[in-house]
Amino acid sequence: MSFHEKSAWASLISMLVVYLVYFSIAFSGVGVFFVIFALIAAVIIQVSLFAGAQILIAIFTREIKEKGDVPPRDERDRGIELRSTRVSSYVLGTAVALWCIAAFILIAMSGGSVTARAAMTACQILFAGFVLASVAYYAMQVAGYRRTS
């Protein structure tokens, strides 16, 4: 596996693990302050996992040991990046459209007044769309490297 593929795997796995736990907490009906605390914890944990994984990948990648630098991106890397960005953009656009629909439905169900729970649910749905777009991006990178290796 190349350095870039290992990096994509680390990003994908850390996002899936951290945000599956986070969204299971966020959609479980706990209080708003606990959800905010869980979000802050999720971001800190994800950044820590990602940084730790990148350090380990850099330590154990032969190309970096020999040259002392990250391998440059070639034409294959740029093609994989382009396809990954395109797919994640579609996922994000779809998520935003679904969020708009969900927000209108939540407002209609609450009788025209937005309750704190409805507002929090709408925010979580939009954030989930952002996370899904990022997961799609890294999943497409992993698939691209697997397909072309």
Q: In words, what does this structure look like?
A:
The protein is mostly helical. The chain has one domain. The chain has 5 helices and no strands. Helix 1 runs antiparallel to helix 2 and helix 1 runs antiparallel to helix 5. It starts with a helix and ends with a helix. The model has no long low-confidence stretch (mean pLDDT 85).
Content of β-strand: under 5%
Tally the beta strands: 0
| Dominant shape | elongated
Main β-sheet: number of strands, strand sense, barrel status?
none
Q: Helical element count?
A: 5
Structure classification: mainly alpha
Return the string of H and E elements: HHHHH
Oligomer: single chain
Mean pLDDT: 85
Low-pLDDT segments, ≥5 res = none
Rg (C-alpha, Å): 19 Å
The helicity comes to over 70%
Number of domains: 1
Terminus-to-terminus distance: 8 Å
TL;DR of this structure?
85% of the residues lie in helices and 0% in strands. It is built from five helices and no strands.
Feature tags:
149 residues, mainly alpha, 5 helices, 0% strand
How do the helices and strands line up, and which of them pair or pack?
Elements: H1 3-26, H2 32-60, H3 62-67, H4 75-109, H5 116-148
Helix pairs in contact: 1-2, 1-5, 4-5
